[in-house]
């Protein structure tokens, strides 16, 4: 059912138009009724300054029906696109049940800033490779789960570069200045 409004809508109070979008605390958020919730409903929890999204409107009283989107008190964060500054540490973690969780995929010019960092630390899970550098369809350098640097075996000889290191045909090649 829709309500047609012929003139513009001008709220004159500092309260939300939809009372469902704010909750005093977690108990208030979890007391929502399923007929009053929908998937994607955003609720701001005032006591913790956290923003939640409803992911299962069939049982909004369950904590698993809500996903924390952002919080000022935790390391949780909303995904962002564009230029972002991070002061302090950036911690990326995930779980085996989420295949892409915990992966950092970098493109463009982020390495300009990373190279000037005092430390870049990568910790593996003991099973998967710690670092994979990919160029096109090949991965010329990998740091395996044991921390060993593994060079991909080239089937062709790339352009020599001073200081470059190449592994091919069970031989290592070092690029020298001419």
Overview of the molecule:
- The protein is mainly beta.
- The protein folds into 2 domains: 11-80, no CATH class; 95-178, no CATH class.
- The chain contains 2 helices and 9 strands.
- The protein has helices at residues 26-30, 110-115; strands spanning 22-23, 42-45, 50-54, 66-71, 131-135, 138-143, 149-151, 165-168, 171-174.
- The strands form 3 sheets. Strands 1-2-3-4 form a 4-stranded mixed sheet. A 3-stranded antiparallel sheet has the order 5-6-7, with no helix packed on it. A two-stranded antiparallel sheet has the order 8-9.
- A hairpin with a 2-residue loop joins strand 5 (131-135) and strand 6 (138-143).
- Residues 74-78 have low confidence and may be disordered.
Describe the protein's topology:
Blueprint: E1 22-23, H1 26-30, E2 42-45, E3 50-54, E4 66-71, H2 110-115, E5 131-135, E6 138-143, E7 149-151, E8 165-168, E9 171-174
Parallel strand pairs: 1-2
Antiparallel strand pairs: 2-3, 3-4, 5-6, 6-7, 8-9
Short description:
By secondary structure, this protein is mainly β. The chain has 2 domains: 11-80, no CATH class; 95-178, no CATH class.
